[in-house]
């Protein structure tokens, strides 16, 4: 009898506990990523490429002013992202604080200041115990950190992958996604695990973009391995051309809300690392920027905006090029041909338009004369074809605003008099440079 009532009691307890649990929201319940924050690739500026951890409130405010005054905010660059090095210590309850020596007014005040200027604040953390520059990582503090960021008014989180031994990548990024969902403020979630665990295969529901490569530097051609005087191998960046090759085969995984991220922009930047100086020419910067737009990449500037040259500014504010990147169809461009140091790329755009560019990776001028019909594209991914024999496009030269627009179909002469025939493109592409066009489908 006693035995029976004990069993009954135990069953009752279990039932009550089960019901209580079912009613209480579980802190680690799966929550969807924030929708609508990256329908087109994110645009902004980040402190890392130029300043690394040498950041402070004064620099960030000067950058914010430059972003407004140079017309960058109007051009779409709205995120101002603090990368590694903003961190102070965790308090006795485990909450992270900003470094008040670098940011004396605090992060909340900085967010308010940026929001008042039409900008948004991005911040950086890491799925491991430490960030790559050895500040406190978020492992074990994911929910606390997400709540803290939301309370500061943060709009963007880049989440890195250093010091993550034995951490499961999908689990770690999903945990932070859930934490951001729970914190209740829409925050763009930028996954930065360098493509090591193929995030394109599992992260479409987890984050809004994922890095596909290691760290970029201002180098167009691949950098040779070299050693310092102590025989230690020097750090070397991934070059623009290497990154393009890695990012190009992943186009099927990108789309609105989930982008391949071939890393931040190096236009107008120069750095010295391990005693080696890196810089690109204006031509290389133009080619780099064009390719990022053709690949629907996030456009996160990485240069010192307080010292920008007119040439760099003209590159990053080219409205027609930005429109290619931000096209609402959200299809990553395709490499149509890659031979003799020439890369031909197409990207389908809204309203039947296409973006087309040719990049010259060689050391000599390339003179192009071709009939558009030689470049017929049939893209399975988007289900689109150029159909040059039947669709007439007006060809707009994106890097030469003064050029006259020409049609792809013209009335023939001689025997073909009066008939529509395919027109020719005639262009010169400088070494390490690009020509780019918008083909506007005439209705
Ligand atoms: C790297 C990351 C860089 C930068 C750096 C900060 O892992 O790829 O973009 O964020 O960490 O330490």
Features:
11 helices; globular; binds beta-D-galactopyranose; alpha/beta; six-stranded antiparallel β-sheet; about 450 residues; eight-stranded parallel β-sheet
Quick description:
The protein has 443 residues and is of the alpha/beta class. It has helices at 2-23, 48-51, 57-69, 72-75, 107-116, 142-152, 169-183, 240-247, 282-294, 310-316, 319-325; strands at 43-46, 79-81, 87-90, 96-98, 120-126, 156-160, 188-191, 209-211, 259-261, 270-273, 276-279, 299-301, 334-339, 342-348, 354-360, 366-371, 378-379, 384-385, 393-397, 406-407, 409-411, 420-422, 424-429, 433-441. α7 (169-183) links the parallel β6 (156-160) and β7.
Task: Tell how many strands the DSSP assignment holds.
Answer: 24
Mean pLDDT: 94
Q: How far apart are the first and last residues' alpha carbons, in Å?
A: 88 Å
Q: Provide the list of bound ligands, each named once.
A: beta-D-galactopyranose
Structural class: alpha/beta
Helical content class? 25-40%
Please compute the radius of gyration using only Cα atoms: 25 Å
């Amino acid at each position: 009898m006693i035995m029976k009532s004990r069993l009954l009691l135990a069953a009752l307890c279990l039932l009550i506990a089960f019901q209580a649990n079912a009613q209480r929201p579980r802190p680690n319940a799966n929550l969807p990523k924030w929708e609508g924050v990256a329908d087109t690739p994110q645009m902004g500026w980040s402190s890392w490429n130029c300043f690394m951890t040498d950041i402070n409130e004064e620099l960030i405010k000067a950058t914010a002013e430059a972003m407004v005054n140079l017309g960058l905010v109007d051009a779409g660059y709205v995120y101002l992202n603090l990368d590694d090095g903003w961190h102070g210590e965790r308090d006795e309850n485990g909450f992270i604080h900003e470094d008040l020596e670098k940011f004396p007014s605090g992060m909340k005040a900085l967010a308010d200041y940026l929001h008042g200027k039409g900008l948004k604040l991005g911040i950086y953390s890491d799925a491991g115990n430490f960030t790559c520059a050895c500040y406190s990582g978020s492992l074990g503090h994911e929910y606390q950190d997400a709540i803290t960021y939301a309370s500061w008014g943060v709009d963007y989180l880049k989440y890195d992958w250093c010091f993550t031994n034995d951490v499961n990548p999908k689990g770690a990024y999903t945990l932070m996604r859930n934490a951001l969902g729970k914190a209740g403020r829409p925050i763009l979630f930028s996954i930065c695990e360098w493509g090591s665990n193929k995030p394109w295969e599992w992260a479409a529901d987890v984050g809004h973009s994922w890095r596909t490569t290691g760290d970029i530097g201002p180098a167009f051609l691949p950098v040779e391995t070299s050693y310092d005087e102590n025989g230690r191998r020097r750090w070397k960046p991934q070059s623009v051309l290497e990154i393009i090759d890695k990012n190009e085969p992943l186009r099927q995984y990108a789309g609105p809300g989930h982008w391949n991220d071939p890393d931040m922009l190096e236009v107008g930047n120069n750095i010295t690392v391990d005693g080696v100086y890196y810089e690109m020419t204006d031509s290389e910067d133009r080619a780099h920027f064009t390719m990022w737009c053709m690949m629907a990449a996030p456009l996160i500037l990485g240069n010192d905006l307080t010292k920008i040259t007119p040439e760099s500014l003209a590159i990053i504010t080219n409205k027609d090029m930005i429109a290619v990147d931000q096209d609402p169809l959200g299809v990553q461009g395709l490499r149509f041909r890659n031979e003799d140091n020439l890369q031909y790329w197409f990207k389908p755009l809204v309203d039947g338009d296409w973006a087309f560019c040719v990049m010259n990776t060689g050391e000599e001028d390339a003179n192009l004369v071709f009939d558009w019909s030689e470049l017929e594209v049939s893209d399975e991914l988007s289900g689109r074809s150029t159909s040059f024999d039947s669709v007439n496009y007006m060809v707009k030269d994106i890097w030469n605003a003064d050029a006259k627009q020409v049609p792809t179909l013209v009335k023939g002469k001689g025997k073909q008099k009066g008939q529509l025939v395919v027109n020719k493109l005639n262009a010169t592409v400088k070494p390490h440079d690009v020509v780019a066009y918008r083909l506007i489908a005439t209705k």
